[in-house]
TrEMBL record:
InterPro entries: RA_dom (IPR000159), Ubiquitin-like_domsf (IPR029071). Residues 20-41 are annotated as: Disordered. The lineage of its organism: Eukaryota, Metazoa, Ecdysozoa, Nematoda, Chromadorea. This is GH01721p (inferred by orthology to a D. melanogaster protein). Residues 64-159, 163-245 form the Ras-associating domain. SMART domains: RA (SM00314). Transmembrane segments: none annotated.
Length: 245
């Protein structure tokens, strides 16, 4: 299913400002970077379409090239060219780009992909920005429109919540970590992000986030969204991370 959200005029104006840095130099793009061994393949702009379609694909009709403009996230890199299949989602694309940029300590759920769709009405070009959901499939959406009539932009959401997680049980030299989290980020994803920040090996399943009460602790479900819990904390409550096995 193709999923996206059409932005209103007011939001479009705001996002047009956000995307301005990516659109001012589209006619003279700078080179992208080298190949990757990630799930999605990142290529130099000099690579041909044939070489992109021939990697890891027995059915080239299910694969294609996706150009994602990234100037809003990394000013010195205008875009990334990815080889993706019709099964790859926005979440796959975002994670691949963040890995290439070595953005390891930011919540991936804060990053969004907008699709700019251009159409002609009575001889005039009309542009619309669509915010894609995390399970949207960009290549499918791209194929729904004529060639060169759509573009993709990676941006950072402004709706993050600053969350404090106390980590003194894992690191006595530290009291807490402050994270900017999406309102969609779960306890499991938060633990994975914390372990990466602390450079601790291990599965998030070996840890738990707990709500510290006056004289007790209550483990949070791995599917709970941390930002919502943090915003509802009482002054005497806090969220801590601890190892369970």
């Amino acid at each position: 299913m193709l999923k996206y959200q059409v932005r209103s005029s007011a939001v479009l104006n705001q996002n047009n400002k956000l995307l301005k840095s990516s659109t001012t130099s589209l006619h003279s793009p700078s080179p992208s970077v080298s190949t990757s061994n990630e799930t999605l393949h990142v290529h130099n702009r000099s690579n041909s379409l044939t070489s992109l379609s021939s990697i890891d694909s027995s059915d080239s009709s299910d694969w294609g090239v996706l150009k994602v403009y990234t100037g809003c996230v990394k000013a010195d890199t205008e875009y990334k060219t990815l080889k993706v299949s019709t099964s790859h989602t926005v979440k796959n694309v975002v994670q691949t780009i963040l890995n290439k940029f070595r953005i390891l300590y930011r919540d991936p759920n804060l990053f969004e992909i907008f699709m700019e769709v251009r159409t002609r009405i009575r001889g005039h070009e009309v542009k619309n920005l669509l915010l894609l959901s995390s399970n949207s499939r960009p290549l499918e959406l791209q194929r729904c429109h004529p060639v060169n009539m759509s573009r993709f932009f990676l941006t950072i959401s402004q709706n993050g919540v600053l969350v404090r997680i106390h980590d003194y049980l894992l690191n006595p030299q530290s009291n807490y970590k402050s994270l900017m989290l999406s309102k969609l980020t779960t306890c499991y994803e938060t633990i994975a992000l914390l372990l990466a920040m602390m450079r601790v090996d291990g599965s998030p399943e070996e840890y738990r986030l707990s709500l510290s009460l006056m004289e007790s602790e209550q483990d949070l479900d791995m599917k709970d969204t941390v930002a919502d819990i943090h915003m509802a904390l009482e002054p005497h409550q806090k969220i801590i991370i601890r190892r369970v096995c």
